[in-house]
Amino acid sequence: MIGQPSPCQKLRGVVGRKHGRIPLRQNFRSHSQSEGNPFWPHNKQTSYHNCRLDNSSRFRFRLHQKDNKKMAPGGGGAKSGGTKRKASDKAKTTEAKTLKRKREQDELDKLRKATDLLDPKSADLKNFKDLPLCEPTAAGLRASHFEVLTDVQRSAIPLALKGKDILGAAKTGSGKTLTFLIPVLEKLYRAQWTELDGLGALIIAPTRELAVQIFEVLRKIGRKHSFSAGLVIGGKNLKEEAERLGRMNILVCTPGRMLQHLDQTAGFDVDNLQILVLDEADRIMDMGFQSAVDALVQHLPKNRQTLLFSATQSKRVSDLARLSLKDPEYVSVHEEAASATPTNLQQHYIVTPLPEKLDTLWGFIRSNLKSRIIIFLSSGKQVRFVFESFKRMQPGISLLHLHGRQKQVARMEITRRFASAQHACLIATDVVARGVDFPSVDWVIQVDCPEDADTYIHRVGRTARYESKGRAVLFLDPSEEAGFIKRLEQKKVTVQKVHVKEKKKTSITGELQRHCFEGPDLKYLAQKAFISYTRSIHLQKDKEVFKLDKLDLDGFAKSIGLAGAPQIKYQKGEDVKRLKNASREAISSGSDDEDGDLSGAPKPKKQDEVRTKYQKMAERQNQDVLSSHYRKLLGDDNDKDDGDDDEDDFLSVKRVLDDDDLATAGVDTHMPKVIKLGNSELIIDSNRREKLLKSKKKLLKFMDKPTRLVFDDDGIAHPLYEMQNEDDFKSQGPAGQLREKFVSAEAEKVFEADVEDKQLAKDRRREKRDKAKARARGEEYEARDGAGGPQLDVDDEFGDEDPLALLRSLPIPGEDSSGEWSDRNSDEPPKKKVKKWFQNDSDVEDSDEGPKRKKAKQDVGKTGRKVIEMDREPENLEDLEALAAGLLD
Ligand SMILES: Nc1ncnc2c1ncn2[C@@H]1O[C@H](COP(=O)(O)OP(=O)(O)OP(=O)(O)O)[C@@H](O)[C@H]1O
Q1: What letters, b where the CB count within 10 A reaches 16 and e where it falls short, cover 201-236?
Q2: Are 301 and 272 contacting, i.e. CB atoms less than 8 angstroms apart?
Q3: Name one GO cellular component term (predicted).
Q4: HSE on the CB side for 778, CA within 13 Å?
Q5: What crossing angle do the helices spanning 176-190 and 82-117 adopt, rounded to 10°?
Q6: CB-based burial of residue 43 (10 Å sphere; 0-12 exposed, 13-18 middle, 19+ buried)?
Q7: Residue 244 has what pLDDT?
C-alpha cells in the first residue's frame, strides 16, 4: 500500500490546493502546550475526548495571513504599486509552496525507500534514530526523551512501518504503546493526511484509563505533527462529542462508545481509515467485547492495516478472520524459557485464610507507609468497603480508591492523584489492571485471587515497568493455593511463598466490628462486600481454584465486622458462564450514566419491548434495595449490566437489611443514604433516586401497611389472627364447624359493634341539636340586650300587673347564687335561665325541651308542682329580696 496514492491523496489533490496547506505542525504544538485550553486534559473541567486541534489551527491560520499583510511593503495603504507588489508576493508564495511540496515529496520518497530496504531482523536497530522515521515523529520522540528501542519496539515497529498486520505479545511495561503509536503517526504522515481527509487511525483500548493514557503518549510524541486527535470514551454528551468527531484524524476510544458513534452520528465517515490498533487485544477480543468489536469492524474498510497488542495472548486473538487480518506477523518477545512477567519483578504469595485477609492487609500497609501500593480486589463493593473501613482506622498513608462505578471525572482525578503522590495506597478493581502506567509503584498486592493467570500477569505488571524494580504479593486462601500456583506455573510464572511474621500479625476484627456498629452505612457496605465476594467466587469458571464450599464464610463475615454471614440464595438453573460473560458484555456496552461502565457504551435495549415502571426501577442497578427486590420478583435475568458490582441479578439475599443495618447519613458521595419510610428505612445510592423518593406520593407506595394488634391481659401484643398449632386446631373439632362458629361469632361482634355505632351516632346528633338551640337562645338574649338592658323572661299569663315587676327590673343575670353581684359583664347573656318564683328545679331544666314534652310537663306541674307558700304578699324591697333568695335556693 505504501507508495500508492490513497483516496485521500487524490482528494487532497483537489481540495488541498484550493484551500492551501495549513501550517498545522505549529498548531499542534501551540495547542497542546497552551495552558488553560478548555479542550485540553490538564484542565480539570474538560474531558479529553473533546480535545480539538482544529479550532486553534484556524485561529493560527488567520493570524498568519494577517501578519503577511502587515509585513507587505506599503501596508496596503497606497493603491498604486500595491497591486503590483501583491502580485509579486503571491507569485513568491506560490513558488515557496511548490518548493516546499517538492521537498516534502522528496523526503517522503526517501522515507519509503528506506522503509523498503529496512531489515526488521537487523541487529543494528538499537535506537529510534536507526528507524526510518519522519522528522516530526523523531523530534517528538527526542523531546519526550525516548532514545533506545525496547525489545518489542525493535521487533515490531519495522514490520509495522512496512505495512504488515501485527499480532504482538510482550511483557507488561515493555513499551507496547510506542510500538503502535509510532506506526500510526508514520502511516498518516506518509499518506500526507490532513484534517480534510477525516479519520485515518483508530486506536481501541478496553478501559477509559488506558485510552486516556494512550492519548497522553500520543500527545507527547505527536507534538510536532499536524494531525488532529481525539479521545472517545463516553461520560460526556454524545451530541457534543459527535460534532467534533468529523474532523479528527486519530481517535483513541473504548469499543462501546465508538460503536455508538458509528451507529448514531450522522456524517461520521470511517471509509478512509488507514490503520486500526487494538491495545490489550485479548481483552478486547474476549467474549465481553466480542459483539461491540465485531459490529465496529463491520463499519471499517477492509484494506486497512491492523495491529493487535497485549501482554498476554489468548487463543481468541488468533481468531483473525473476525478482524480481517492479512498474513499477520506474530511478534512475541517472551523468551521461550523465561517468565511472562518482567525479570525485575519480585513475586511472592502468602497463604492467609479468608477471615484473616484484612488483618494481613492492614499489617502490610502499616509496615509499608513510605511506599506506593496498588491493592487489587475483585469487586467495586469490596473496594468501597476496604477503603471506607481503613480510612476510619487511619493507617497513616494516603488512601485512594478506584472502581468502574465512579464518575469519569472522579476516576481521572484519582488516577492523577495517585500518579503524583509520593506515598499512597490505591485500592482498586481490575479497572486499572491492564495497561495503566502509574509511575514507580513499589508494591502490587492482590488481596482477592485473580480469575486467571493472565489477570495475575496484568495486575503485577503495574509495577516493575520498563527498567524499574517492583514487588508483588498475592494473598491466597488455603483452598486456592494448589490450584492457582499450578495455573501460574503453566504460564511460566514463578512465585515464592512467604509467611507473615507472627509479631507483625494484628487483628482488626474488633475495630471493624465497632465501626460497623457505630456506622450502619459501613455495615451496609460490609454486607454488600460479602455478597459481592461470594458471588465472584461462585461465578469463577476455574473450579479447581475457586471452591466456595471450602471457604470459611462465617469467619469472613465476622472479620469484616458483621455479626453473621448474610444468607445468600443461589438461583437455580443459571448458566454461570453465560452470566459472567454477559456482565462483561454489558461492561463493554453499558451506559456510563447509570452503570459506571468501563467503556462508556450505551446499554443494549430490547427493541419494541414494553416495560413496566417496576421493571424500569429494577433495571437501575445498585440504586436501592427495592430495585434488587423487584428484580428478583420479576425473575429478570436478562438485565446483566455491570461486571463486578451487581450481585443482585444473580444472587438473592434473604435478609438484605434489618433495622440495625440502616443508617442516616452518607460518609461521602459514594456512601449510601437512608430515607425513613414509616417504621422501615430505605437505602438510597443515588441523588436522583433520592429526589424521586422524596415525593410524598411515591413514598406512600413504599410505606408499610399498618398491622392490627390485639393486647392480651398481660399487655402483650398479638396479631389479630394468630396462626394456631395444627394439632390444637384439629382438637377443636371439624374445620367446617369451626368456620361456621367463627363466622357466627364474628357476625355477632359485628352486630354489637353496629348497635354501638348507631347509638354513638344518635348521641352525636342530639348533642349537635342541643348546641344549635343554645346558640339560638344566646342570639336572642343578645338581641334583647341591644333593645334596652337585661330583662327577665316572663310568661305572658301574668300580664302587666305582675307583682314581681320590680324584681324583674333588677339586673338578675349579673347576680350569683349567693345574691351578691359578681364581676360578670352585664352585657353577657345569662348562662342559665332564672327560675320563676313558682317553679322548682325540674321545671327550669325542662324548659329547654321541645314544645310537646314541655306541654306534658306543664300538665304534671299542675298537679304535682311544689309551690312556695308565703304568709303575706311581698310588700317592700326586703320582702321581695327574701322571696328571691328563697326561690334561688
Ligand atoms: N524506548 C523506551 N525508552 C524508555 N522508556 C520507554 C520506552 N518505551 C516505553 N517506555 C516507558 O515504559 C513504560 C511502559 O510502557 P508501556 O505503557 O507502553 O508498556 P506496555 O507494554 O504497554 O505495558 P502494559 O502491557 O502494562 O500495557 C512507560 O512508562 C513508557 O514511558
Answers
A1: bbbbbbbbbbbbbbbebbbbbbbbbbbbbbbbbbbb
A2: yes
A3: nucleolus
A4: 8
A5: 130
A6: middle
A7: 80
Q: CB within 8 A of 569, min separation 6: which ones?
A: 651, 652, 653, 654
Amino acid (one-letter) located at 337:
A
Nearest CA to ligand 1 atom 10: 175
The packing angle between helices 238-245 and 255-264, to 10°, is: 80
Instruction: Supply the mean pLDDT for the chain.
Output: 72
CA-proximal residue: ligand 1, atom 14 (nearest) = 173
Contact predicate 227/215, CB 8 Å: no
pLDDT, tens digit, 9 for 90 and up, residues 141-170? 999 999 999 999 999 999 999 999 998 888
Q: How many CB atoms lie within 10 A of CB 44?
A: 9
Contact between 568 and 534 under an 8 Å Cβ cutoff? The reply is yes
C-alpha 212 to ligand 1 mean position (Å): 15
d(CA 669, CA 150): 43
Among left, alpha and beta (phi > 0; psi -120 to 50; other), residue 276 is: beta
Per DSSP, the chain holds a count of helices (H) and strands (E) of: 32, 20
CB atoms within 10 A of CB 50: 19
Q: What is the pLDDT of residue 689?
A: 67
Q: Is the pLDDT of residue 867 over 70?
A: no
User: Mean pLDDT throughout 389-408?
Assistant: 92
- Give distance in angstroms: CA of 178 to centre of ligand 1: 7
Nearest residue (CA) to ligand 1, atom 20: 173
* CB of 228 closer than 8 Å to CB of 52: yes
The neighbour count for residue 120, using CB atoms within 10 Å, is 17
ipTM above 0.95, yes or no: yes
CB 420 within 8 A of CB 414: no
* Cβ pair 53, 229 in contact under 8 A: yes
Residues with CB under 6 A from ligand 1: 146, 148-150, 153, 170, 172-178, 311, 435, 437, 461, 465-466
**Nearest atom (ligand 1) to Cα of 170:** 21
Ligand 1 probe mutation, 182, 204, 466, 468, most atoms within 8 A of CB:
466
Nearest to 415 by CA among 107, 230, 647, 208: 208
Among 1-5, 312-316, 472-476, 621-625, the range scoring the smallest mean pLDDT is 1-5
Report pLDDT for 185.
96
Q: Which residues pair with 682 in a beta bridge?
A: 675
Q: Is 839 left (phi over 0), alpha (psi -120 to 50) or beta?
A: beta
With DSSP H G I counted as helix, E B as strand and the rest as coil, what are the percentages for the chain, rounded to 5?
50, 10, 40
> What gap in Å lies between CA 553 and CA 168, rounded to an integer?
42
Q: Does pLDDT of 687 surpass 60?
A: yes
Q: What pLDDT shows up at residue 356? A: 94
The Cα–Cα gap between 287 and 272 comes to 28
Closest CA to 305 of 330, 285, 326, 282: 326
Which residue bears the cell 467534533? 244
Q: Tell the residue nearest (CA) to atom 7 of ligand 1.
A: 175
What pLDDT score was predicted for residue 310? 86
880 CA to centre of own chain = 94
CA-to-CA distance for 224 and 208, rounded, in angstroms?
A: 25
Total-model pTM: 0.58
Residue 603 makes CB contacts below 8 A (sequence gap 6+) with: 586, 589, 590, 591, 594, 595, 641
In the block, residue with C-alpha cell 536507526: 130
Residue whose entry in the numeric block shows the C-alpha cell 347509638:
759
Question: How far does the centroid of ligand 1 lie from the alpha carbon of residue 124, in Å?
Answer: 21
Residue nearest to atom 4 of ligand 1 (CA): 146
Exposed/middle/buried for 586, CB within 10 Å: 0-12, 13-18, 19+? buried
Ligand 1 test: best mutation among 148, 178, 436, most atoms within 8 Å of CB? 178
Rounded to an integer, the average pLDDT of 877-885 is 72
